[in-house]
Specification:
The protein is an alpha/beta fold. It is about 35% helix and about 20% strand. It contains 17 helices and 20 strands. The strands form four sheets. A six-stranded parallel sheet has the order 7-8-6-9-10-11, sandwiched between helices.
């Protein structure tokens, strides 16, 4: 769908967060004759918006609309956080309402801009950012967009001026994505966001929709689900298999040669070696010289809130891994420090998932992991996982301070929560910033 298709139409912007705001700006600029209404379902947010509303020709609707009200619109531009599978949206679509997204509009409006899309359950942001750094080695304009980097339709840095766009996409973006992708990277697949997608199978299906839009797919051969779903595809370049880029006990290997030795990357953890393989798969395919690519990979720093070393004091290292909102992500974080005593801080929203694998991974480390828990997930860990003997803390500050007071030189104080942050923080970034401030206060106090 092009902006010209919106001319004279009655258009609703559903949700007015980061993407909703960008969608409104794009529609107003691209389809000035459209009649536009912002539908903000959170009434408290809508009330705050109304007090300073600066769009005189744009309507503002508060609260969820009935199906009949939705059907009064011709086109709905939906924010990704709102499930495509809600009964009201499904009914409205069946009645003829056209539903699109900011990302689909952008792809339709930029058919000549090469796109490398990155998706997967974990590792998307690190992989996408590393791809951007690799492809920009010779001064090309490589723009980073989506969940990481600037938003789409950025007036200050127009995508039409880019040589290539690296686009990080979540499953929310992919469920109804429409448009062509030059390269697609899939880092891994394991169940997530089943409340939005209604089931794990549908989550997998929605992730895999993008493979039908891409000319070339770069997929992780270590992932069983990806192997099962893509084994018959002819346009797949596999990494993680011995026949291509893969991780061995020596490091990143290609055609029998070790490109990056264990310990040479600034990024910690085996999972980041695999992420680097994904980025290298794209970069080498697109002509980045191998020696240049290796140099960039070795120097690439962790992104904020992703195994980010925020301070070192008296032999202790504080690591912020707030992005770890699942047990599997926390297990990968633990594996990043195999030879250190880890003081692990867990906890947050309890989504009711299986904790047995995480508990077993901690128990296998015996005395080399000390666990402190907070929040609803922490309470369940105390009940269900007594083999790991977790310590309770009332909040994040108490957890960090207690671990500092009980630590020894060489310890890693790792916040890798295995849960979302919404019990106490706006999002994982706010939780990570809180961790930083607490650590900063401790370091300042110690002099």
């Amino acid at each position: 769908m092009l902006f010209s298709d919106l001319a004279g139409k009655n258009v609703a912007i559903l949700g007015f967060g980061r993407e909703g705001q960008r969608a409104l700006a794009a529609v107003l600029a691209g389809a000035p004759t459209a009649t536009v209404t912002v539908v903000e379902e959170n009434e408290d947010v809508a009330e705050k918006l109304a007090t300073g509303w600066v769009f005189p020709h744009v309507g503002l609707s508060a609260g969820r609309l009935e199906v009949e009200e939705l059907c009064q619109f011709d086109v709905l531009v939906k924010s990704p956080g709102i499930s495509l599978y809600r009964n009201d949206l499904r009914t409205a679509k069946e009645s003829g309402l056209l539903v699109t997204s900011l990302t689909s509009l952008w792809l339709s409006c930029h058919p000549h801009v090469p796109v490398v899309a990155v998706t997967g359950t974990k590792g998307k942001s690190t992989t996408a950012t590393l791809i951007r750094e690799l492809l920009a080695w010779d001064g090309k304009k490589i723009h980073l967009r989506g969940n990481v980097g600037r938003p789409l339709f950025d007036a200050d840095e127009p995508e039409s001026e880019a040589d290539l766009v690296v686009l990080e996409l979540s499953s929310f973006h992919l469920a109804d994505l429409d448009g062509a992708l030059d390269h697609l990277v899939i880092t891994n697949l394991f169940p997530a966001h089943t409340d939005w997608h209604t089931s794990a199978d549908r989550y997998f299906d929605d992730k895999m929709r993008a493979t039908n839009l891409a000319a070339v797919v770069h997929a992780n051969a270590e992932d069983v689900e990806l192997g099962r779903r893509l084994s018959a595809r002819k346009n797949v370049l596999w990494y993680g298999a011995e026949s291509g880029l893969h991780v061995s006990p020596k490091g990143i290997v290609r055609d029998g040669s070790v490109l990056v030795k264990i310990g040479e990357m600034t990024l910690p953890g085996r999972h980041n070696l695999v992420n680097a393989c994904a980025a290298l798969s794209v970069a080498l395919e697109l002509g980045v010289p191998e020696d240049v690519a290796i140099r960039i990979v070795k120097k690439f720093l962790p992104l904020p809130h992703r195994l980010e070393c925020v301070a070192e004091r008296k032999g202790r290292v504080f690591v912020n891994d707030s992005i770890a909102t699942t047990p599997l992500a926390t297990m990968a974080a633990l594996d990043s420090f195999p030879d250190r005593h880890v003081r692990l801080i867990l906890g947050g929203v309890d989504r009711g998932g299986d904790l047995s694998q995480l508990s077993e991974a901690i128990a296998k480390r015996n005395s080399t992991v000390t666990v402190t828990v907070t929040g609803p997930l922490g309470k369940r860990l105390c009940v269900e996982c007594r083999d790991i003997e977790p310590h309770w803390a009332d909040d994040l500050r108490a957890a960090v301070e207690e671990n500092w007071n009980g630590s020894c030189p060489g310890d890693v104080i790792l916040m890798s929560p295995a849960a979302p942050s919404f019990d106490a923080f706006r999002d994982f970034e706010a939780r990570g910033e809180a961790f930083r401030k607490i650590v900063k206060a401790i370091v300042a106090k110690e002099g």
